[in-house]
Write a structure and sequence with these properties.
Length: 405
């Protein structure tokens, strides 16, 4: 099958950990690679954010990344990209019309890609599948006035959900949200993200250890809703442990980063500044080394559409303490592979962290169960196989042995 992945702001080739580059980039890169391994021909369309980028780059066998000229060829925050989605979609339509390559299926990632996809397929029979990655209604609920999404977001999300052929939800919580939004249940398929079990392994090289004897690790984009401030506020309840936060801008730019400055202030106020370390952005290839240094991994966002870092930590055989939100409710089995705690509650979090750090037997059993669960249920191959079956349903294609793997 010829598959067009549209990921307007999240390039599979981007460095991760910055404000607008994280899980979606990983997801699109890994899924595209896994679909190519199954024999498909995948093109990922992302916005050209640098004039120096070639139009087409081979990412690996069977996957090319196409840089679509829509809006200025410069970095633009994702919340300012809506005005360029018409051009994005029209460029795709013209590109597919020239006859060299046209997709059998279009899979849009994030709501704005959905708009570009629907513009691009107007007048064609090509089916569209949508993965939201995050929902405007949830963001508005949690962030209120701080949410900088375009005001039309929730309206467009509903329209997309009612227009496309299928919506892929990544967890059961997202299904509930989608149904609440008015997306017909019969059109929703549950296909969780995955983790690369060949890279995220318990044993292997480790990042440098710190002076403390116990290390908590947390990682992600340095934005308020990831809950790093609550994690720092929990630290006084966890004496002797250091807290390493991996993510954000490159290390050299941390000094000028407002969220990094805020976290440092919180650490000062709580009297734990000497136990909090911000590393800045880590290359994706280094993430397993970081997880492996942790006695436990904390993932404590206010809300989380899926939460790849939890799965990556689990695959590295690390016990997790995670907030009981979104994808964590599916990936973490409370009391078996980790502990779930209420979001935005530093006291409950501090108690859970301390209890687990003080209990090596429990950490050991969580770690073993977590590693098993990640390997058994969350491979990218499995996600790609489920997706391939979904594409076949909506295109009417019959999967051959070779393609079905
Ligand atoms: N990540 C990374 N370098 C960093 C911080 C994060 O490569 O410095 C990766 C991390 O390994 C994960 C992704 O970024 O694959 C974050 O995904 P998650 O689903 O946890 O959060 P999102 O970005 O979708 O909010």
């Amino acid at each position: 099958m010829r598959i067009a992945m549209i990921s307007e702001h999240a390039s599979p080739l981007a460095a991760l950990g910055g404000e607008d580059a994280g899980g979606q980039n990983t997801h699109v890169a890994e899924l595209s690679a896994a679909l190519a391994t199954l024999g498909h021909d995948v093109r990922v369309y992302t916005r050209r954010d640098d004039a120096a980028r070639p139009v087409m780059v081979a990412m690996r066998d069977g996957v090319s990344v196409v840089h679509v000229p829509a809006g200025p060829p410069a970095a633009v925050p994702k919340d300012e990209l809506l005005p360029y989605m018409g051009d994005f979609g029209r460029w795709l339509a013209a590109h597919w019309d020239d006859g060299a390559w046209a997709p059998d299926i279009v899979h849009a990632h994030f709501w704005m890609s959905g708009l570009a996809a629907l513009t691009a397929v107007a007048g064609r029979a090509t089916p569209v599948v949508q993965t939201y990655h995050a929902l405007g209604a949830v963001k508005r609920r949690h962030q209120g006035a701080a949410d900088t999404s375009p005001p039309q977001r929730t309206h467009f999300e509903r329209r997309i959900g009612r227009t496309v052929d299928r919506v892929v939800a990544q967890c059961r919580d997202e299904i509930r949200e989608l149904v609440r939004m008015g997306v017909p249940r019969a059109r929703i398929a549950l296909i969780p993200s995955g983790v690369d079990g060949s890279r995220f392994t318990p044993h292997g090289p480790q990042a440098p250890a710190g002076p403390a004897t116990r290390r908590l690790l947390s990682s992600g984009r340095l934005v308020e809703r990831k809950g790093f401030a609550e994690l720092i506020r929990a630290l006084p309840l966890v004496p002797g442990a250091e807290c390493v936060i991996v993510g954000g801008p490159p290390a050299g730019e941390l000094g000028a980063h407002p969220e990094a400055a805020r976290l440092r202030r919180v650490a000062e106020e709580c009297g734990v500044a000497d136990r909090v370390h911000l590393t800045g952005q880590a290359p994706a290839a280094d993430m397993p080394r970081w997880y492996r240094t942790a006695d436990l991994v904390a993932a404590v966002p206010w809300y989380e559409p899926f939460g790849l870092t939890v799965l990556e930590a689990m695959a590295c055989g690390r016990p997790v303490v995670a907030t009981a939100v979104g994808g964590h409710l599916d990936t973490v089995v409370d009391g078996v592979t980790g502990d779930l705690v209420p979001p935005r509650d530093p006291v409950a979090l501090g108690r859970a962290l301390r209890r687990l750090l003080d209990d090596p037997m429990r950490r050991y059993s969580y770690a073993a169960a977590a590693e098993d669960r990640a390997a058994e249920r969350y491979s990218w191959r499995r996600a790609a196989e489920q997706l391939q079956a979904l594409y076949a349903t909506v295109t009417g294609a019959v999967l051959t042995e070779a393609v079905a793997g």
